[in-house]
Amino acid sequence: MPRLRQAALVAAALLLVALVGAPLLGLALATSPADLRDGLSQPLVYQALRLSLLTTAISLAVTVLLGTPLAWLAATRHTRWVRAAEVVVQLPAVIPPAVAGIALLLAFGRHGLLGGALARAGLAVPFSTAAVVLAEVFVSCTFYVQAATAAFRQVDRAHAQVARTLRATPWQAFAQVTLPLALPGILAGAAMAWSRALGEFGATLLFAGNLPGRTQTLPLAMYAALESDVRAAQALALVLVAIACITLFAARRFARSASWR
Amino acid sequence: MALTLDLRGLTGGVPLDVQLTLGDAPVALIGPSGAGKTTILLAILGLLRPVQGRIALGEQVLFDAAAGVDLPPELRRLGYVPQHNGLFPHLDVRDNVAFGLGCGPRPLGKAERRARAVAVLEQLSLAHLADRKPRDVSGGEAQRIALARAVATEPLALLLDEPLMALDAVTRREVRGWLQKVLSELRIPALIVTHELADAKALAPSVAVLEAGRVTQHGTVAELGRQPASAFVEAWVDSQAPRG
Fold first, then answer.
1. In chain A, N or C terminus with fewer CB closer than 10 Å?
2. What is the predicted ipTM?
3. Alpha-carbon distance B201 to nearest alpha carbon in chain A (angstroms)
């Protein structure tokens, strides 16, 4: 009976939407405007917000700067090494963040793979703001690289070739033709990566700690607030959800902003 | 000015063996799919590197495997229209045509190259399309704009890959007539890949036949019809000859 099948489909879909939507709605309803105002006026909130914006801005810059060349290579060269590099960068998406935290600690800790050399140079990464940035890059770069790779792959190679015959150097062809054509996908990837970095919790807690003003980002501040002031935690959670919604909306807009399609 | 080609060796998966000289009259390049027609164009353009051979445009050597000469595409001064026109979808028609004028050794400023682009479009009766995006022009218009973009940089030779493909019969005839006129005014070497006898006849006095990377015959359509060098040529002339 097609009617019944249709109903079952809709019911299943609605159930999932409710499963995701209900907790978010609950959070919004449980927080009155007064709670929100009180919660946000805690000094810890402002400090965490500032640190989160600073570290995610840096980590996004690092991700874009280092991720774009990798995405370009992955989209245009099909060697074993490029594929291996692609897989390595995909790993953080499937590794639990806490595992990432331990791995980072073991790599950059005093007795770690790289930490020893860094310590001798007077650089102690763990439990510093730099560690926050590193953790954010670690967990978020996958999203950017994957989106940028897909965006570059989508651009017809013929366009860059024609540009070359129109006297463009390889760099001009890239900057004026390939990059603008890939840009909507790249921006969408950047938005998703930024959002993931902003929400980063597990790896940061283990690798950078929870030090107000130095390593306490928004999610960590929320975690700390749970023990003292639930309203502040709620307010922070709401702020994070709001930012996430805006980012998701922006990413979807970017993806559709290819006005020529 | 003449474009002389001597292309040999496995190039882009095709074993090329092509010796061909183009004068100021266009040459139509025909051949079965996979014979290497597009490969030859890409090799001439410098987008694919032949194993052996030499490409020269007048006195200027573009490629010479033995002498180690291999000019990059941007220095070859060749105009190219790829299959499906290859217009840049993110730029309007004016900026598509202006693109090449902003590159090269003496790039023009934005205002100047736009003015020049409009002048080129006017010359080719396309100025009314200047503000449109490629997705908003018809297939026939897109083909003409692609040619306008290629000639705007004043190339010394033209390479057109199926310039009339994917057009309906009426548009095809229209664009063919227009192209014929433009080519006769340009008077530069031109290599035109095509499948259609009618296009070859209208656009070029001679036809080169490419089969499996080799030029098996080069002559007028009448010569090809009188003495076809291969079964393909015979079938090609035959299949498209008027019946009755």
1. N
2. 0.91
3. 27
